[in-house]
Design the sequence.
């Protein structure tokens, strides 16, 4: 495939997206159910393709974590099929008309929700992203152009084939789903220039990929996924609660973007809180990178080390956390403003006014009082599913579900109205 | 001013915007009322600066229309002050909490509307844009960085001074309003790179400016203002209504982006409709650029000429219109899809199914049945005011009012919730 062929595929997706954008919910749900069935019925072909990917990855010396991300098996396929059925059962955002009213001159005017058009996705070695993104795009009436990493190319191609067959079986245009079945890296930059055909680009993967896509794309990008998340334990915190929430925010899944990176502890409660946290974390293998006051309280404990400047504002994605003692809520807020990435931030407090100030003043996609930042997730937030988590300010912020893959048009109904 | 000083100004706007974002509605409205008073009280200084701009423009040989755009007088200042008071009276979008609900696990979660941050504006020779944009930004809690064209620099500087004094008099940080008081063109490209400090860029001016800003800006842009607008007269149209609406859409104000550019007429009604339109338009000096079937119906009439290919999809901004006879609604829809700019499109019809298809299938910011496209305007749509008209799909479409200058953050209230 060369850049011209890629452009042609994108154009086909755009053309087909116009049909998909007007498709009935029944037809779109039919496509989704056919995809769920296809994942099971064509499971053997998918797993065969995945075996080739995994063998190649082993030959290329990928580490165990990367191969696990790549690996599919029957259970994972069934899980994917179940997830597709969940999306089929979600309400269709398209066609909702809102803010409809009659103006004093008798014009009826409102906004009608319509698909964005074509969603582009650039991702790495998780083949399930192929299905995740395609299904959310289809349900919200969008076409999709999928570009996956070289390691998962065969698996993702097999999954994209299932998606396209499902779309066609429901009488919808399979050209709405385009899969780039070439590992040529120059196609990525061509894709990022295809502003005429792709309305929104979604990068899914590591920080380098996200940065590259954000800086290079000619179309809007949902730039998310990078989460430097703080939890501040206020002087008035319930320390039992703080221990459970801070522990959960770090340890439940340390490798996801909403995991805790830095604990800020008010100096009044640091002497009682930090030793309890260090004891809990030592038992779970969490390394604590401490500022000097914290270090003084935790001296000679296992897995306690001195923090360097680079630890503040660092996304660990591992069983490591930075720990800082602060003099006040103000200092905590200033630290979060300086080092946070605008993803998820939490305060643990029993003080009403501290909770209110934190909610008011912290500028992040998700701001918590007395809860774990690991809740930042489309399904947890009641959106049913998510295409990604936005840390930008425009269009959508935080978990992006189906509604966030739509825009609106104004519809105006007159009876021969002319403007004076 | 050099690029470093510009960056410093942008940083100041960003820092001050955090204070402004938490300011009370009372304080913000106080600033707006002080600005309205300042426009009158400091009117002599503003008009003196404007006289210098106008004299320089005459020396530079600007044409009368351009000098009229530049010109301020007491009446125009009073009009600006009245417009500022209108914005002060609008509801404040900031702080509205929506989609708030309690999840099955007891977590309370919702979205709270917050300012975007800092709005950048790059505009040409209309000094009133200085006040328009600054006031909408301030009301919605945003900072603003203003860059106006060389011709209006003195006038706009005087107006920006009134704005800053008004902000300060209300106890808010005047650094939230930054005016770039240098005509150096290299500062524009520096401004377009200031992604760290400016959250949304609004270009206001001609097509070249808008294209340049859209293609060069590192931050999101509200790209609007280019409107290639069609009105389709269906076979079932009430032709008296069609005549009034088509005439209004072109002639009321031919130089604005929502003005009609192309009339599409169904062939069944073209013989009765087009001669009436030609008679009306000849009396108002509207040139009709016709395809062959239309030309055959209007042969030898005044101001009727043959259309060239470049007339389709052209934004005339003048008393000129392209005229095309189509065989069907399908042909009209296909023409609009190919040549429209996604701004405002209208159908004149008495047929229910034609109206429904037009509403469903036309992909534009504003889609009309039996009304003039000149209604596409923030005030007309009930938004109170507008910062611009977006023809993009992301974030906001059509007229952008105060709400469209905001984003939201998720707020989550727990009682020690941890994620299983």
Sequence:
């Amino acid at each position: 495939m060369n850049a011209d062929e890629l452009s042609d595929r994108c154009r086909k997706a755009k053309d087909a997206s116009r049909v998909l954008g007007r498709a009935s919910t029944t037809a779109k749900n039919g496509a989704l159910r056919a995809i769920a069935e296809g994942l099971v019925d064509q499971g053997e072909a998918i797993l065969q393709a995945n075996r080739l990917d995994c063998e190649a990855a082993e030959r290329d010396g990928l580490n165990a974590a990367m191969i696990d991300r790549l690996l599919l098996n029957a259970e994972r396929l069934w899980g994917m099929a179940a997830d597709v059925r969940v999306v089929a059962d979600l309400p269709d955002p398209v066609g909702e008309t809102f803010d409809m009213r009659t103006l004093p001159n008798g014009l009826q005017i409102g906004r009608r929700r319509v698909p964005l058009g074509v969603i582009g996705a650039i991702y790495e070695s998780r083949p399930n992203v192929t299905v995740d993104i395609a299904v959310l795009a289809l349900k919200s009436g969008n076409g999709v152009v999928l570009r996956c990493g070289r390691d998962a190319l065969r698996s993702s191609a097999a999954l994209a084939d299932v998606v396209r067959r499902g779309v066609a079986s429901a009488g919808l245009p399979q050209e709405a789903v385009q899969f780039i079945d070439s590992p040529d890296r120059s196609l990525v930059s061509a894709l990022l220039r295809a502003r005429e055909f792709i309305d929104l680009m979604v990068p899914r993967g590591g920080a380098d990929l996200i940065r590259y896509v954000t800086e290079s794309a000619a179309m809007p990008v949902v730039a998310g996924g990078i989460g430097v998340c703080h939890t501040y334990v206020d002087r008035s915190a319930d320390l039992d609660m703080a221990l459970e929430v801070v522990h959960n925010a770090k340890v439940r899944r340390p490798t996801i973007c909403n995991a805790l990176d830095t604990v800020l502890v008010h100096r009044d409660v640091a002497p009682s809180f930090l030793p309890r946290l260090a004891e809990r974390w030592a038992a779970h293998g969490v390394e604590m990178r401490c500022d000097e006051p914290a270090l003084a309280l935790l001296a000679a404990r296992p897995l306690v080390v001195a923090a360097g400047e680079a630890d503040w504002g660092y996304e660990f994605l591992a069983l490591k956390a930075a720990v800082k003692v602060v003099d006040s809520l103000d200092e905590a807020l200033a630290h979060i403003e300086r080092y946070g990435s605008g993803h998820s931030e939490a305060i643990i407090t029993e003080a009403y006014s501290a909770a209110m100030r934190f909610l008011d003043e912290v500028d992040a996609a998700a701001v918590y009082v007395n809860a774990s930042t690991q809740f930042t997730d489309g399904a947890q937030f009641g959106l049913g599913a998510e295409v990604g988590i936005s840390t930008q300010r425009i269009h959508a912020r935080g978990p992006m579900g189906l509604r966030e893959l739509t825009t609106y048009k104004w519809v105006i109904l007159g009876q021969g109205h002319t403007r004076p």
User: Anything to note?
Assistant: The longest helix of chain B spans residues 3-21. Chain B has two domains: 3-222+396-412, 229-380. DSSP finds 14 helices and 16 strands in chain B.
